[in-house]
Design a protein that fits this description.
The protein has 423 residues and is an alpha+beta fold. Helix content is 35%, strand content 26%. The radius of gyration is 27 Å and the shape is elongated.
Length: 423
């Protein structure tokens, strides 16, 4: 048995082991795909007390060649992936060799059991690391084995917590969001989590991709950018992933308040190889402050706003048709309407749909009550726009948060004495 010495200070090594459970697991899965595996499996070993005993991540890739173990495990920040941007036709995720250290955020002892092929023969050995000595990895003896299957199984022992986030059904969803674009871009790849296939399509409601073309940076350079917007059919945090052109997520950030999309659960993936270059330089972690990132994200968010305006308009149209069928819509069908009434109708549609979403009891009301509510709202828009705020607050009894949201919507959609819309 030998020892691989990591050329980095211990306090730095400890700092890079910090990670959320799902993010740490994702790093190990990425390593499997980077090793040319088409399938990566995650196993949760549960003990008799229904507690998490260990976590295993298995891939069927190239394995870790013994002659390269010193460089791969000993040289932090000098990953082979920096030079090899693509491997077996696929983009690579890792680049600094830090991913393996994330495993120590899950458990104190991590073991890599790997099998590789060399000169037509298969060989296996183990690498073991411990959180108490992050600067040393113990490397076992290489033995020849009778198998045609190569790959690596990472086992995390002595888990630091029971990690409910790994044991409940949200874990699959979290991985589906992280790997959604990659799994779509490379359909031959798959992830199996605790016996179940991770399928982003199963929880996708709608997906759109937009080519933003070349975007000019403040430096004068131009970079190609595209964006994928995925709407989910289950509740989720609104997050923006900064990805390379192949959809490999390199950094994520909250979508922020600029994207107003009531009723939508979504994730956005901004794709550009410029993010890959910034990541190599260690500048992507400063995304909120970096000039280039701000320019690209601003353009992408403008497209996202346009996307959701169209999606909302489409939804509104379907809802309005339903109201017409129920005969509660306050306007007559008429092809010859003047611009003022056309604008009134647009404002009404926007406000009425939002009132319906904020007022759970509305759907349970009878047709007579719904019709009267819509009559009041339409009359207020036509005769006295200032009274709309009173109606949604005092008459309909919407909560303060909903009132504030609709007040902001009113500011954007109504300008007295003429009515206009932003849609």
């Amino acid at each position: 048995m030998g020892i691989v010495q990591v050329t980095a200070k211990k306090d730095f090594l400890e700092s890079i082991t910090s990670s959320r459970p799902i993010a740490a697991l994702a790093e190990l899965i990425w390593n499997g795909f980077d090793a040319a595996s088409n399938k990566v499996e995650v196993f949760l070993d549960i003990n008799e007390m229904n507690g998490l005993e260990s976590v295993r991540v298995r891939d069927y890739g190239d394995g870790i060649t013994f002659s390269k173990v010193d460089k791969l495990f000993g040289s932090l920040g000098d990953s082979w992936k920096k030079a090899a941007v693509r491997q077996h036709g696929r983009s690579l995720h890792g680049k600094n060799g830090k991913g393996r250290f994330k495993a120590f955020s899950l458990g104190h002892k991590v073991e890599w059991a790997t099998t590789f092929k060399e000169n037509g023969k298969s060989h296996s050995y183990k690498i073991v690391g411990n959180s108490t000595s992050l600067d040393n990895f113990n490397v076992g003896k290489v033995v020849e084995v009778d198998t045609n299957v190569s790959g690596t199984e990472v086992t995390i022992h002595n888990v630091v917590s029971d990690f409910r986030s790994l044991k409940d059904e949200t874990a699959q969803m979290s991985l589906a969001k992280i790997f959604a674009v990659f799994l779509t871009e490379y359909p031959e790849t798959s992830i199996e989590y605790d016996g179940k296939n991770v399928d982003p399509n199963a929880v996708q409601h709608h997906r759109e991709e937009y080519d933003l073309g070349e975007i000019g940076l403040n430096s004068g350079n131009r970079v190609r950018v595209s964006i994928v917007v995925i709407e989910w059919n289950i509740p989720t945090e609104r997050v923006v992933h900064l990805c390379d052109a192949s959809g490999i997520s390199l950094f994520e950030t909250p979508a922020g308040q600029q994207i107003r999309a009531p009723g939508f659960n979504f994730t956005a993936y901004i794709k550009s190889d410029h993010f890959r270059e910034l990541d190599k330089l260690g500048q992507l972690a400063l995304a909120d402050l970096h000039d280039d990132v701000q320019v690209i994200v601003r353009a992408a968010k403008n497209k996202m706003k346009e996307h959701f305006r169209k999606r909302l308009a489409s939804q509104h149209s379907q809802i309005v048709e339903k109201w017409k069928e129920e005969k509660i819509y306050p306007y007559e069908d008429n092809d010859n309407i003047d611009p003022v009434e056309f604008a009134e109708r647009q404002v009404f549609d926007i406000l009425a749909v939002n009132v319906q979403s904020y007022l759970p009891s509305f759907e349970d009301s009878d047709s007579k009550q719904k019709k009267f509510t819509f009559f009041l709202l339409a009359q207020a828009i036509r005769q006295n726009p200032d009274s709309v705020q009173f109606i949604i607050g005092e008459v309909l009894g919407l909560k303060k948060e909903a009132q504030d949201d609709l007040a902001l919507l009113l500011e954007k959609t109504i300008v007295d004495p003429h009515i206009r819309t932003t849609v």
